Every structure is written in structure tokens, then in C-alpha cells.
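Hi,

Apologies if this is the wrong queue. I'm a grad student, and the batch job for Vacuolar protein sorting-associated protein 16 homolog from Pavo cristatus produced an output file that my downstream script rejects. I'm not sure whether the problem is my script or the file. Here is the sequence I used:
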Amino acid sequence: MDCYTANWNPLGEEAFYRKFELYTMEWGLKEDLRDCLVAAAPYGGPIALLKNNAKKEKSPSTRPLLEIYSASGLLLASIPWKSGQLVQLGWTASEDLLCIQEDGTVLIYNLFCEFKRHFSMGNEVLQNHVLEAKVFHTEYGTGVAILTGAHRFSLTTNIDDLKLRRMPEVPGLQKPPSCWAVLTQDRVTIVLLAVGQDLYLLDNTSCSVVTPPGMSPSAGAYLQMAVSFNYRCLALFTDTGYIWMGLATLKDKFCEFNSTIRSPPKQMVWCSRPRSRQRAVVLAWERQLMVAGNSTECIRFVLDEDSYLVPEPDGVRILSRTSHEFLHEIPEASQEIFKIASMAPGALLLEAQKEYEKESQKADEYLREIKDQKLLPEAVSQCIEAAGYEHEPETQKSLLRAASFGKCFIDKFPPESFVRMCQDLRVLNSIRDYQIGIPLTFTQYKRLTIEVLLDRLVLRRLYPLAIRICEYLRLPEIQGVSRILAHWACYKVQQKDKSDEEVAYAINQKLGDTPGISYSEIAARAYDCGRTELAIKLLEYEPRSGEQVPLLLKMKRSKLALSKAIESGDTDLVYTVVLHLKNELNRGTFFMTLQNQPVALSLYRQFCKHQERETLKDLYNQDDNHQELGNFHVHSSYSEKRIEGRVGALQNAVDEYYKAKNEFAAKATEDQIKLLRLQRHLQEDFDKPYLDLSLHNTVSTLIQDGHHKKAEQLYREFKIPDKRYWWLKISALATRGDWEEMEKFSKSKKSPIGYLPFVEIAVKHHNRYEAKKYAPRVTPEQRVKAFILVGYVGCLSLERQGGTGELEIRLGLMAAGGSWCSSTPRAVGLGYSGRIREALILLLPLGAARGATQTPLFSPHGGK
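Support response: The file is valid. Your script probably expects a header line. Output copied below for reference.
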């Protein structure tokens, strides 16, 4: 343990800091970092370098070179810089590189120097040029702040939703500020700048002078300022070497420190651990690194070469030409275990495990001491936590072995924390490997989350490692393996060295039917890369037609899209393609295309019936479908307001029906034309609406209006069957109440429908008196029903004597619906069998309901 703490440096009484090497950089830089434009992404992200940026020559040999390296110094990509003069480099939260030019244009590249897009910071920046620029991160996204040559500030808080803001002007500002920074307060982005000994705060609307609390009057002019990683803390450096540290709101002071160095540092960044009481900043000069905090002392490191500081949530990365180091505060758990002469439970447990491996009895003594204090669970937890903060695998194993050893002596110790830590460390060790080059700490890993880490591996095209991590952590396929395979396939289609068939086959073999995979998205990527045939082959593996069709339409493969839509059986999808074809093709080609697809043609006809009637006519004309053309003209005739137009449309229908050899339809349409003309004359003669009535309704209306001769004319002209005409006439006369005319009509000649309808219609209109006139004229087989309808049940005896069978009378009673009258009781004693009597008794309530006299059929003593 003494050796382990050799690189610990105390700051105050409770805090220790250590600096250890992450990688030996082998990027072979010939230039010093001071001669390059440098930007390193946080969370162990990549490093961007722009070499030869200061040179103005444009010859190919001296043209600036943009290079992107991993954190371990492996070259990811490089391109010669052919655009304008660069002022600043920066990284977005999604690890896209921002290149800010002197004219205010911001170019965005991915990790492999592939151009994505660009945007401008506005005309004012273009006119006055960019003096300085900063890339910052807020809850809204990645932002860019610009200081122009006119000493004005412009910024945007989210480059993905570009909204430029021009900050207020600083009164009397004639030269650039000595230093400035971007802050966030209450979700509002502001700019803090220093001019000499004055601090100005620029918000959306105003410029105000601020004074840090507790600032010494003799502090001097401000030369440097730094904002913490979470934008909550602020540090200021003055020309007297005075360092002030406090809240970014400038409402509270943490501490101050006098560095005694008057020259401004090249960089000043915060170095603090989450939930730590120590506040510290790191300052870098040419050959010296200083850590200053709330202590009278500081930590100094000698720098052998020019370095660059990268702030992290829990420390600072230090880049140089030969090494990549990490400086951080020792976590509390590690301090408790490894501090010299520590008697913490975790330290005793670690010693116990080491003695146990030596087969020494001291192991038992250490364990008993921990157990007597009932601190064994705490000791195990300390060892597990400390293992996460260690970078060296051997130290991790030592601490985890101690935790595992201690768990054996605890009943029901939950294993989840131990298992989770083993998994996390295995993932972290795999990505810290030199070939991968992502030196995440455990704290950063937990903040970043496994999902974001997998995204970053995918961005680096490290698909096998990402898949192995997903399988090891047993992540759901849709969130893990499926998503990564989809990204791999999208990258695969960009490779031009293989044929479309080979790429499509390789993708299908790898992906198969993996859940969550969308072949349409992969095909869309292939199409965007100009590989249309590959996209079509990939769509063959897409099981959802709803995903196939839109992309095929986008690729101008409309006929194939139509076939796929028809195969799916989804009518909405077919309609989508058909309407797309209608807008894309000329009329003739469109109709010919539909001719080869009967299903699509049928659906389009249905659409036209409701939406485009004239187009429907063109379809029928093209097919020489005279029957449907006739139907079309008939349907169209009803939309005509003038009778001449309607007759003309029906005449066209007659012609089409004859061409279709449908004589019945033609004759029926001719009759309709004749009826329309007659109805027009009737309407003109009698000043009453007759148009659009059917033939039967026209005849019935004429009879009701008393125009019997006109009704007879229609009867003869349209050859209405006798039975139908008699029914129409007696119904209309009864409705009119013209019973005299009805009686005359019944005697005009023998009724083709008999006389029972006369009885029924009269009863229906509540005229039993008229109904009784026709009852005797009813044929014998229907007479019982007629008598019952008119309520003349007394005549049943005559019918009995006249030979009407019991069954006929029974059926008559049933058909009459139980009609009843005052003579019904006497009918029971007319010699009928008991079954008839029962029928009469059952029908009694029906008769009573119709107002018949309810005379008792039988006496209380059972007599007749």
C-alpha cells in the first residue's frame, strides 16, 4: 500500500490528487501542440488537430491538415483543409467536429472527416470576421459563441435548431476583452467578459457590471477565467497571480489562492470530483502544472513538454506529444482503503484477503476485528466501490477478490452490486484498450450510460466489440444487437468495392430475421448512396409492404411499388401508389399501366365513382365497356337539374345499352325517358310536382288527385299488369277516402285480385262498413277470413253449414288476427268442436284489445 500511494499528492487535510498515464501516444507529432489548433472531446473522446494553420501559403505541401485521432493516438482520419481560415475547433455532444471559420461559417464533420453539413453565424459575423469562438454545451444541445471584430457577441444555444442571438453591446469597449466565458443561469445562456479590472455580464437584453463577492481590491486585472464542467462554478485569474473560485452566479465565494505567478496561464480548467468538498482548478504554463484549491498550499507538477488540458466531469486529461495522462482527486473509498495506516473496514478486509492467500493466521485476526465491529458489509461495499475507481486491472482484481472473500462470511449479502461492478469493469477495460482508445472512468461511464457508449462504438465502426458488450450484458435485442447490426448494414452499403448481390447477400446472412431490424431503412441508406439496385434487392427481404412501397415510389420504381402494394392486400397502400402514378404519368400511360393490374384498376374505378366521375367515363371508353357507360349515363342523369339534360343523358345510356346488346336495360331506360316527359306535362298541367316519382307512385298520385283518365292512360301506355293496377287504384282510392268510386270500380268488371284486398284495405282504413260490402263477394276459401276481418263472426255458422271445414275456419281466425265482435259468444255454441272453442278463447284478449265487447264465454259453473 505504501507503494500504491507514492503518486498521491495532498491538497489540504482531506484531499489527495494523483496523476497517472493513460496511454503512451505514438501519433508521431513533429509539431508542438502550441503550433496546432487542438480540440479533444470529453468523456474520453477523440482528438482533432489542425496542423500548419498559421501558414498562409496555399501550396499543397504546406496546406493545413485536419487529423482526428483516438485518445490513444491512433489516426482515425485526415484530410487536407481546403476551406477558409479556421479560428476554433470543437466537439458536439454526439462527437461531431465543429470547424469555425473566420467568416462565421461552421462546418460539421464526423469522426472520419466526412463532411455532414454547414451553417453560418449571420451576416454581421461575416462582415466583421471572427476574433474568438467557443463551443459550449447546455440542456438545449451544443452551442457556439462568437466574438466578432466589432467586439460584439453572437451565439446560438443549439446548432441543430439554429436561432442566432446578438448579445447587447458593452459600453465603451474599444478592444477585445482580456478573457470571456459562456455561462448558463436559470436555463438562460449569458456571456461573462473581463475588461481590465471590470467584469461585464451580458444577458438577452442588457449589459451589467458585476463584482465577485470577496474579491480582494488589490487583485488586479483579470487575465483568465474558467467555467466548471457542469457550468456551476467559476474561477478567475488576475495579473497579480490571484485566483478567485466561487459560484458561476457570482453570489458565493469558495476560496482564493495566490499563485505568485503573474504571467497568464495558457489554460485554466476545473478539476473536481462529484460530491467532493474540495474545489480545485488546474493551471498550465509552458513547463509547469499547478493544482490550486481551498488550501494555502498547492500541488505543482513539472511538464517536460507542451501540454493541452481536457476537462472531464471527475478530473482533467493532459495531452502531450508523447503521453496522455489523467489527473483527478482520489475518491473517498480509495482513500479509506489505501491510505497509510488506515484502519478502515475495507483496508482491513484487503489485508485479510492477502494474508489468507499467504495461508497466514493473521487473516482470521483481521476478519474478527471487522466482524466484532459489525462492519463486514461496509468493508465489502468499500472494496467493490474502490475497484470501480481503479484504472489498473490488477488493482481491480485485488479489491474484488477481497470483496468476494468478505462476502463468504456474510449471511444473505445481496450479490447484485458485486456482479454489476464485475460487468462494468470488464466493459471499461475492453474500451480502454489501446486499439479502442476510450479511457472512460467509472464515474464518466455511469453518467454516459451504456446506451450512449454503444452509440459511440458504433460511430467508430467498432461493431464486433459493441455486439459482444450487448451479449455480455444481456441487453434486449432491439436496444442492443439489432440496433448495432442495423448500423453495420447501413455502413456496409456504402462500400463500393463489392457488387450489389454480394452486399445484399452478406447483409441478409448476418441480419436474417433479427427482431427490430428494418431492411427498408438500410435500403434507404443504399439509395442515398446512389445504389438503387442494391436498395431494391434489400427491399425484397423487408416483410412489411408498408415499408417497401414508399421507398420504391421515392426511387421512381412505381410499377414495382404497385405490384408490392397489391400483394400486400392493403387497399390504402394500393390507393397511395395509384394516386402517385396518376400524378407522375401522363393519362394514357397511366391507364395502360392499370390495364395490367386488374385489382388496382378495380380499386381506381371505385375511387373515381366517388371522386372523379369524368375519369371513370374515360376508363369505360378506353375499355369499350358499353354496359358500364350506360350505367354511368343513367347515374349522371340524376345530377342534371334541367329535364332536357336528364333526357339527353338517358338517351346516351339507351345508345350504350343497345351497343352492349342489353335490350332489357335499353327498353327500361326508354320507358324512363317517356315517363319523365309525361311527368313534365303533368307537372305543367296540374301545377304539382310529379318529376322523379316512380311509375307506380305517379299513377297512385294521379288517382289520389282524382285524375283517373290520366292514370288510365299511364296504365295502358306502360302496360301495367292488371293485378298491380287494381292494387294501386284501390289503395289510392282508400287513401283518398273515395269509397263510392272504389265501389264503382269493383263493379266495373271482375276483379283480377279478388275482393279480399277490398276488405283488407277498408279495414286498414278503419271503415268496416265499407268492408262488409265486399265480404260476401270474397271467394269461399277466403270468406271466413273476410267475415272475421269485418267482425261478422255470426256468419261462421252459415259457413259451417255451407261446408266450410273446421280447418279453414281455424285458419281464417288465425289469419284475421283474432278479430272479435258482440256476436262471438253465440258462435261458441254452434256445434264446433272443443278445439275451435279453445281458439276463440285464446283470441278473446286480442278482440278485447281492439275494443270488442268482453262477454263471458262460460258461466262460473261451467255451463255453456
